[in-house]
Amino acid sequence: MIIELPVTGVFTTNSYFLIDSESNHAFLIDPGAEASKLLNYIRENNLIIEKILITHGHFDHIGAVKEISEALNIPVYVHENGKKYIQNTIWNLSSSCGQDITIEATNYMKNNDLIKLEANSKIKLRVIYVAGHTLDGVVFYSENEKAAFVGDSIYNGEIGISDYYGGDLVTLLTEVKHKILTMPEDTVLYPGHGQTTTVRRVKNTNSYFRMSD
């Protein structure tokens, strides 16, 4: 079961829970702000968060990590290129918005890692490295759920911004085309901001990829 819970800091960011309904164990993806809101949801629904998973290290995706991970003693997973983002307020853009956000990771992921829920190994996410928005961007893909948590690599009708530190538009377009748009067309894409979309809809309506064919 996938639950979307938007949180608002400087921006509104989509945080996601991937939950095993039998055990109430879950992954928490991109807790970007409003730690108290997320903690209340966790406690009210008796969730046991096994891991916090980060799609990339920009501050609006990591802003609530420290408070939640410390409150519940949860490990934090970041791509192996993410250290320069999560520990540097310039690279993670928090300083440009008048904030000072840094976090520590307990685990660093690599492309093609498989992250399983300990309570139910059928619930698993494949780590797919997608550069272009940042140097540490990943997509978490669930074949069973027909879902991909795509961070800021692609949105409904748009492409991720590529003019921040480590970004590159050509790289981003190439990565999305070959790593996300090759997924089954009914795969639901859960972005870091805005509404969900599907691989099919992106192929049919997103001008960046119609133009790049």
Automatic annotation (TrEMBL):
Coiled-coil region: none
TM ranges: none
Stretches assigned to the Metallo-beta-lactamase domain: 12-193
Pfam family membership, one: Lactamase_B
Source superkingdom: Bacteria
InterPro entries in alphabetical order: MBL_Glyoxalase_II (IPR051453), Metallo-B-lactamas (IPR001279)
Gene Ontology molecular-function annotations: hydrolase activity; metal ion binding
Keywords: Hydrolase, Metal-binding, Zinc
Cofactor(s) of this protein: Zn(2+)
Protein name as catalogued: MBL fold metallo-hydrolase
Lineage: Bacteria, Bacillati, Bacillota, Clostridia, Eubacteriales
